[in-house]
Amino acid sequence: MKSDEKSRSIGTPVSEIEIDTTLVYNLLADQHPDLTYLPIHFVEAGWDNAMFRLGDQLSVRLPRRFSAATLIENEQTWLPKLSYQLTLPVPTPYRIGKPTQSYPWGWSVLPWLSGRSADIEEPHTNQAQLFALFLRSLHMPAPFNAPRNAVRGVPLIHRAAAVEERMQRLETKTNLITQKLKNTWKTALNTSIDVEAKWLHGDLHPRNILVQDGKITGIIDWGDMTSGDIATDLASIWMLFSDQNARQQVIASYANISEATLQRALGWAILFACMLLDTGLVDHPRHAVMGERILRRVCEE
Q: How far apart are CA 166 and CA 196, in angstroms?
């Protein structure tokens, strides 16, 4: 779910270049030969990047398509500057890879963070305060030259047409687009941003949050990091916790979230949910399940 999302239901983007262990080995041999003794194993391909495990403690992350190349540059440039203030582990780049004749974009060698994505293993309710503290540590003023993002941290009205097209399509496929959900969305659209712009992760859905034995162990995939409305990230409260009391604990521990910001956060949760469900129904069952869960949680409020 990245910066060139389309409203049409097209499923997961196809990789624009073949990425396999041979390519990764050759890139390492050319630029970081001291790492070539480590075994390389394919992990998975996401919306924008392919991930390989490199030995026990490292990973290699490579964009699958042109539009993701800028996103990985955001991580390489800004995450080392931001990570010192964060209260949860993040994959600060260990080595930087450059484009070659065989591979046209930058890439990264990262530390391997343990855990499974939160859509597979939900964090324990006792992680609510920890997660709130992480959000507070992240949501600080960003410098003037922070990355710009046209689809994260912006007024929801900028996303309304695409979201409502998805909702109309989902109405024909599911029973999840209820009148209550529509009312919540309309309220969010009509709620002005009442907070100053802060640093955002921008894509805090469950597959970008790692969990091990119920504990949150890391936050990954920072390509959409930007400055903007914190409601974008606060939507993760409904994406991460199925227990309503845990969600309320996050809100209380974050402290001083205005009612207007909570309304916008619910709107952002609906946006992410519709995106995940709409595209997931095409070719990605895990995304579809995530989207359905989020919509049901929003309707519990």
A: 29
Residue 9 has pLDDT above 60, yes or no: no
Round to whole Å and give the CA distance between 89 and 96: 19
Report, as an integer, the average pLDDT of 212-220: 98
The predicted structure's pLDDT at residue 11: 76
Rounded CA separation 53/62 (Å): 12
Question: Looking at residue 251, what is its pLDDT?
Answer: 98
Ordered structural domains, the chain, with CATH: 21-112 (3.30.200.20), 117-300 (3.90.1200.10)
Give whole-number Cα distances, 201 to 86, 147, 152, in Å.
11, 11, 9
| Tokens of residue 9, six digits | 């239901």
Segment 25-62, tens digit of pLDDT: 999 999 999 999 999 999 998 889 999 999 999 999 99
95 sits in which H/E element: strand 95-97
Distance CA 239, CA 15 (A): 27
Q: How many CB atoms lie within 10 A of CB 259?
A: 9
131: closest CA among 278, 299, 247? Answer: 247
In this prediction, residue 12 carries a pLDDT of 78
Give Cα 176 distance to the centre of its chain. 23
